[in-house]
Design a protein that fits this description.
5-stranded parallel beta sheet; alpha/beta; Rossmann fold; OB fold (Dihydrolipoamide Acetyltransferase, E2P); 33% strand; single chain; 5-stranded antiparallel beta sheet; 7 helices; 15 strands; 2 domains
Amino acid sequence: MMLRCLIVDDEPVAQGILERYIQQVDGLSLVARCKNALEANHWLQKAEVDLIFLDIEMPHLDGLNFLSTLINPPKVILTTAYREYALEGYELNVADYLLKPISLERFIKAVNKVADKLEIPEPPATPTGDYLYIKADKKMVQVYFKDILYIEGLSNYVRIFTSGKPIISYQKLSYLEGVLPQKDFFRCHRSYIVSSVNIRAYNSNCLEIGGAEIPIGGSYREATLERLRPFEA
């Protein structure tokens, strides 16, 4: 299922960041960018909208007052540079509150609060070769197992780290755990799957892969260290 999104923000830079995130994250599509509440109201009358990214500080009619005028609003994620609006926003039953500048990871966590109520699409068939196809950037992307460094789970999304830029897909980490070759990949934490051949260093608390430190979860520690022990000199 695709979430149809509306951006309402009077700052072009903030609009651009949100649009880029929407384009990067599978399961989202952009309906329109609006610079004020009047434009937003026009699009709400004209098109189907599932989720609004709503700035609070806007001229004429601010985001909170605009939200209070809507009879049956879509899901709303507030965006603002001012932390003090958080409580008032939650009183209006918004899905989440994003403090600018907004990181991609925090953006995904906010979207997950809405996506949790939706069904994740049926995954493709189990791979039989040395690669699999991942739905990302509105297309199916071929990812070779040898290129994967590690995978981070973000609730309903995964972020696949390779030697290139990360690939973000609307998928469960548990699904990938089941289809990746077990001889080459294992779960070291509830939020991470790693490639064993790409581990450059480790201790009892973390693994070093591709310049990043991946934590070893307490319940995964014994199995992780047991798996790596045969390679010790």
